[in-house]
Known about the structure:
Elements: E1 15-19, E2 22-25, H1 32-39, E3 57-62, E4 81-83, E5 94-100, E6 131-134, E7 137-140, E8 143-147, E9 153-159, E10 163-170, E11 176-183, H2 193-202, H3 207-221, E12 230-237, H4 239-245, H5 261-267, E13 276-279, E14 292-295, H6 305-313, E15 323-327, E16 332-337, E17 342-347, E18 368-373, E19 383-386, E20 394-395, H7 397-409, E21 425-429, E22 440-443, H8 444-468, E23 477-481, H9 482-487, H10 490-496, E24 507-511, H11 513-523, H12 525-537, E25 539-540, H13 549-556
Parallel strand pairs: 1-5, 9-12, 12-14, 15-23, 17-25, 18-20, 23-24
Antiparallel strand pairs: 1-2, 3-4, 3-5, 6-7, 7-8, 9-10, 10-11, 13-14, 15-16, 16-17, 18-19, 21-22
Helix pairs in contact: 6-11, 6-12, 7-10, 8-13, 11-12
This protein binds FE2/S2 (inorganic) cluster.
Residues 45, 47, 49-56, 83, 85 line the site of FE2/S2 (inorganic) cluster.
Amino acid sequence: xxxxPPAADDAAMPLILDINGESLAxxxxxxxxxxxxxxGVEVPTSCRKQGKCKECMLEIAAGMEALSPPSAPEAHLRxxxxxxxxxxxxxxxxxxxxxxxxxxxxxxxxxAYRPAFGxxxxxxxxxxxAVTRDGGRVRLDGEVIAEAAGPLCGLAMDLxxxxxxxxxxxxxxxxxxxxxxxxxPQRFGGAEVMSRIAYDCEHPGKxxxxxxxxxxxxxxxxxxxxxxxxxxxxxxxxxxMRDLFFRQDxxxxxxxxxxxxxxxxxxxxxRASTALTQSGRRSLLPIHPRARVYGAPIxxxxxxxxxxxxxxxxxxxxxxxxxxxMDIGTNTELIAGNRHRILAASCPAGPAFEGGAIACGxxxxxxxxxxxxxxxxxxxxxxLRVIGDTRPxxxxxxxxxxxxxxxxxxxxxxxxGRLRGDASRLLLFHDAARGDADDIFLLERDINELAQxxxxxxxxxxxxxSEYGIEFGQIDVFYLAGxxxxxxxxxxxxxxxxxxxxxxxxxxxAGNLAIEGASIALLSRARRRELEALARRVEHCRLETHPRxxxxxxxxxxxxxxxxxxMEPASCQN
Length: 574
Ligand code: FES
């Protein structure tokens, strides 16, 4: 239903729509989709504004009350998400701030720790793809799946709760031809895995998977090859994200003892691996219908295929040194070990360190504050480093760690996360010409969210290391994985206690190891077998039943260096 246009005498103070940082005065009778078109902002769609594809989602950051009520095609959306083609301005004045879920390019981690394969790189694996050419035939593991000329291509995908990264490879040369990264559009079903599980169980029609498939299809269609030449795809992600993609029933992952269907079937002897496969046709993607879509094996519980892929990427199964991997995210993965023994845990940290649940939080996109420097004394504006050297639009995870480190260093915040005096927020950016509407700040409430996310991560660290029977200082290499880990201010992270207090030289800010491992598994059948073997031998440290988890969590919520606690090992489960 389109609302009535605003009264003529309100025209002097029009409603302003701000979409992906571009502004214009609202025009009565036009949907937000049409306003985005006027601004030149691309909104994902496959149904031409008919309310059918559900792809044109907008996240409303402010001004929800100035919009028309949700329509029937929006009944599946939770929180502050709307469909652009169904939403109309419904107030005469005010300001609505919103963004699409593909706002600009996300920062893609191309500078991997060591590339999987490719020109000019020391290869991590022998090229031994499952897809081969035999004259005019294309074979997959020796079986003919197509009669076609043209290249042989494959995709590697890291399907994160918050971010999706896809790489396109030439399977005959091992070269990476293109890549893409975007926010996971499934966020309309909740910010973390438990809400997504609840959403998927409550809503019929596999809406989460279908929405992702729509976004992914657009990304694949923009790659510089015919999608029909894509004959294999390797998917990694946490257990929930992977299983949602393969349209598995995820109910059991959300209930104690938190096991995926594939894990239950493996334990019952009904399958040999937790890996999943499906055809290109069933995947709903525009790739070759007889392509194989391979979901790498999960480890156990919420320790997923992304953790297994990260282990493959650093060659953990061959390591003699003591190695730790920490991939900080909505679900933080922690791994410690070497070729003799490997332990892993998954920490339900929530989205705070990815900018979620934070008043001015945002992903690491152009416009995100990624570093903050505060003056030692009060007064003066903070010095900011902003991705893309542009006007700040929010603060991302690395900026949050930097800001917390500075608050602690300058004594403006204590170890409990309380701001000095009666301050309730740290103002980071103010533009006098635009009033308070564009202020960027960090609230004490945000700091509390970050403390709890940190508490979960630190509890995982203490649990894994105590189970392993070693202290933090005995680790030889500590990989910080993921885009967040790569751009982290290590000194600030050590100061606030997000990572253990070990020698800085032991840290390797390795980038996205999960996509690296997925790429290796795509390019090498031998390394894929190694991945399967690795996933089977990891001991799962279950935090939810760990006897000291609560103590570790409380300790970890404080902003202070993480040091070893008295040991008291308990047993891990496979
Ligand atoms: S454009 Fe398809 S639902 Fe809005």
